[in-house]
């Protein structure tokens, strides 16, 4: 079994759900060397998250943003933590709901996504800044 690991710094993006599959694949050429295995993509932040979902229709990503903005609203007077503004605590809650990593099977040197699947960077802050990922894969 081989283990590979790379870091990837994503450029700053506006709040929303952004496809980053191509960036992850480009930053991780080791995937082509694997016949079978698993790949974990981990985000090193508490106010952004990762998920796998629809990669074709951009309205899905718009609906994700609408849903999470309604579900976890800003300016809730019951929030205690608001050190960095009204989007701070909601960003932490959204990241907790979606999670900080995704796992993708590797088959014959490629990510084994289903039809229409891709990796989303879920940016929950208005100005979150660049985001750091750790990509780790293991297998044969």
From TrEMBL:
Xref: PROSITE patterns: UPF0047
Alphabetized Gene3D superfamilies for the sequence: YjbQ-like (2.60.120.460)
Pfam families: YjbQ (PF01894)
PANTHER family referenced in this protein's UniProt entry, alphabetically: UNCHARACTERIZED PROTEIN YJBQ-RELATED (PTHR30615), UPF0047 PROTEIN C4A8.02C (PTHR30615:SF8)
Stated family: Belongs to the UPF0047 family.
Protein name: YjbQ family protein
Organism the protein comes from: Chitinophaga oryziterrae
């Amino acid at each position: 079994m081989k283990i590979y690991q790379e870091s990837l710094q994503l450029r700053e993006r506006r709040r929303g759900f952004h496809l980053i599959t191509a960036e992850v694949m480009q930053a991780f050429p080791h995937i082509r060397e694997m016949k079978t295995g698993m790949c974990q993509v981990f985000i090193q932040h508490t106010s952004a998250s990762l998920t796998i979902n629809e990669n074709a229709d951009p309205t899905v990503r718009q609906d994700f943003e609408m849903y999470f903005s309604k579900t976890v609203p800003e300016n809730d007077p019951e929030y205690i933590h608001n050190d960095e503004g009204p989007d701070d605590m909601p960003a932490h809650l959204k990241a907790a709901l979606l999670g900080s990593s995704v796992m993708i099977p590797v088959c014959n040197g490629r990510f084994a996504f289903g039809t229409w699947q891709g990796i989303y960077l879920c940016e929950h802050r208005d100005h979150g800044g660049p985001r750091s990922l750790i990509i780790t894969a293991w297998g044969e």
